[in-house]
Structure to design on (664 residues):
């Protein structure tokens, strides 16, 4: 697993780079969390100054970065001024919720996109392919913001589903099965939005790469051997088309995380999105850095996962050859 | 041939749209900031062709709006007097494209009636006018940010691909860093490090700079690839043999190869950046009231009662979708023209 190790080390280096980049941008910040306090007449300037030096706000950038690295090593990931606790405890819960939402959305999107993409590729130029392409072009032009608002509009008009948050108010008193159902119902709106937002691009890419494979000589040979229909498409054509798709997987994770941020804010899903937005408004910089690092981590993990999947899917690729 | 037609169609739609938004003052019947406190959340004005006696009119007309008795925000038409829609009518003063002071508007009605094509918002401001003026800000942000991204991408990509060695190495590491971050997370983070309470003009420039700076990495990588492959072509080597300077080769033989990619990237980036501005303003980190932008127009929908009662507040979304659709079709057609249809 030499290749995998190299990928992991590369990913960790990238994370270090991201943290440096974050601190470099943070150095541009003209204000900080304690500026608001100065305006409060009940807090004396001495208290503000003491707080500033306690959190090391007035130190130069390299020193602050050093402090932050030490705190990462201790497993604290910096300190949140607004919540008055280590960032890690905030991040873990939020990251778990985001991960739940995005994993589900990713799985569903690919489960829907692969058959659709393969099907439209097979029916290339016919009426159903054209309709699929026109539909995906239209859906592609609708920003996830609008998709989410339209879905919300529909739901609040019909009262069909719970909106907002992750669970209902009475969640704690529910039974085990009722808890799961409650969670699932709350997942419907954000997941649907994410799937609708990421589906069109994926279908188009899968279609394009399968179309290319279907023109290859080995497909003709397979047809001549009497292999056709679904077996040809999914057993022979799809694995051969997997290579460009695996790099697409990494990209789609990034796009999905971005959409997820917005959807979480709109539907009040307690994930990284609302946390980052709050922290951005309050200049709670270590929370901002932590949330960005978490998102970068998901993205790197996603692309490594995609490479592993590629090795599984495409018989032409073996780890030794990479 | 079909591709060329598609490009022309997309260009025509986009051109018309941009022209309308550039000439917002002329097309919009009212000032975007003019409030009608008597008509909050008035629905889109109905345009009639047939009057109360069943007679058809060639010139469309409207009825003036009145608040239904014993309600606050339900409206009915006062059918006793009709107001024909007039074209090239005198109205509130404005500056055409920010330069030419004028009074004439494309359409409108004579007072006291008012025509609200897309309804009004909570302050009774005409939403149609606000969408047009807001489009100026949203589109300008998208276009300028795209310019910044492409310029940065072109410079870094060219230098990196052409000069190679450690410049290339370090530039590409930086590109990787920018690409590994989900763009909205990155955008919010960078925005959070910048001042919040500044004048609208400063906010606008800041937004453009932030959005533009974040997206340079992908164009840079694409341009670098093209420069690398162009650099090894035989005519470039020949030209070098004839004693051409590096700058000459870059400008004369290498740069023209990048135009196609830049064009496709531009058509892809503009809608993305318009959406980026809309998203930031929607989240309250972009332009704030009273300056209209598609983002803070849509932000009205975040109030529950607006979302369920006033469907016309979705109108800015329609404008956004049309712009995205136009640019994406253009990008598709240009891309297929270059690579041969799939």
């Amino acid at each position: 697993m030499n290749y995998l190790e190299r990928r992991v080390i590369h990913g960790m280096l990238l994370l270090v780079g991201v943290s440096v980049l974050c601190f470099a941008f943070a150095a541009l910040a003209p204000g900080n969390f304690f500026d608001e306090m100065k305006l409060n007449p009940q807090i004396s300037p001495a208290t503000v100054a003491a707080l500033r030096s306690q959190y090391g706000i007035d130190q130069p950038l390299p020193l602050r970065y050093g402090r932050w690295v030490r705190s990462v090593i201790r497993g604290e990931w910096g300190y949140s001024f607004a919540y008055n606790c280590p960032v890690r405890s905030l991040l873990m819960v939020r990251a778990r919720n985001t991960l739940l939402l995005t994993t589900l959305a990713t799985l569903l999107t690919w489960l829907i996109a692969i058959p659709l993409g393969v099907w439209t590729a097979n029916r290339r130029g016919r009426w159903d392919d054209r309709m699929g392409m026109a539909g995906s072009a239209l859906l592609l032009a609708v920003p996830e913001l609008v998709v989410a608002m339209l879905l919300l509009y529909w739901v609040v008009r019909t009262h069909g589903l719970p909106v907002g948050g992750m669970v209902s108010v009475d969640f704690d008193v529910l039974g085990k099965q009722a808890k799961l159902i409650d969670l699932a119902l709350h997942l419907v709106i954000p997941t649907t939005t994410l799937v609708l937002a990421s589906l069109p691009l994926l279908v188009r890419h899968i279609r394009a790469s399968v179309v290319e494979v279907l023109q290859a000589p080995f497909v003709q040979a397979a047809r001549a051997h009497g292999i056709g229909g679904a077996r040809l498409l999914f057993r022979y054509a799809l694995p051969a088309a997997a290579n460009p798709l695996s790099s697409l997987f990494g990209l789609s994770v990034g796009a999905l995380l971005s959409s997820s941020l917005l959807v979480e804010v709109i539907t009040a899903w307690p994930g990284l999105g609302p946390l980052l937005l709050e922290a951005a408004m309050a200049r709670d910089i270590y929370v901002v850095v932590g949330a960005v690092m978490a998102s970068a981590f998901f993205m790197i993990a996603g692309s490594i996962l995609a490479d592993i999947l590629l090795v599984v899917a495409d018989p032409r690729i073996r780890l030794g050859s990479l | 041939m079909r591709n060329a037609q598609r490009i022309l169609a997309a260009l025509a739609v986009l051109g018309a749209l941009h022209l309308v938004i550039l000439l917002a003052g002329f097309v919009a019947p009212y000032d975007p900031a003019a409030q009608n406190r008597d008509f909050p959340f008035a629905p889109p004005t109905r345009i009639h062709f047939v009057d109360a006696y069943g007679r058809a009119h060639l010139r469309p007309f409207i009825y003036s709006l009145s608040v239904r008795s014993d309600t606050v925000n339900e409206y009915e038409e006062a059918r006793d007097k009709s107001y024909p829609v007039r074209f090239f009518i005198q109205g509130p003063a404005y500056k055409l494209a920010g330069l030419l002071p004028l009074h004439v508007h494309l359409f409108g009605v004579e007072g006291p009636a008012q025509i609200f094509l897309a309804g009004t918002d909570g302050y009774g401001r005409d939403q149609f006018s606000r969408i047009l003026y807001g489009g100026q800000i949203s589109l300008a942000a998208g276009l300028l940010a795209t310019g910044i991204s492409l310029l940065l991408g072109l410079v870094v990509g060219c230098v990196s691909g052409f000069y190679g060695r450690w410049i290339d190495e370090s530039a590409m590491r930086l590109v990787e860093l920018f690409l590994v971050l989900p763009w909205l997370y990155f955008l919010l983070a960078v925005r959070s490090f910048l001042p919040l309470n500044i004048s609208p003009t400063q906010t606008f420039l800041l937004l453009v700079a932030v959005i533009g700076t974040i997206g340079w990495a992908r164009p840079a990588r694409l341009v670098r690839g093209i420069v690398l492959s162009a650099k090894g072509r035989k005519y470039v080597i020949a030209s070098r043999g004839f004693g051409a300077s590096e700058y000459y080769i870059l400008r004369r033989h290498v740069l023209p190869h990048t135009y196609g990619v830049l064009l496709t990237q531009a058509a892809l980036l503009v809608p993305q950046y318009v959406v980026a501005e809309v998203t930031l303003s929607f989240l309250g980190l972009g332009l704030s009231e009273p300056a209209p932008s598609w983002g803070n127009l849509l932000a009205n929908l975040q109030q529950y009662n607006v979302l369920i009662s006033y469907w016309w507040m979705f109108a800015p979304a329609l404008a956004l979708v049309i712009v995205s659709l136009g640019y994406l079709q253009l990008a598709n057609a240009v891309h297929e023209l270059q690579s041969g249809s799939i």
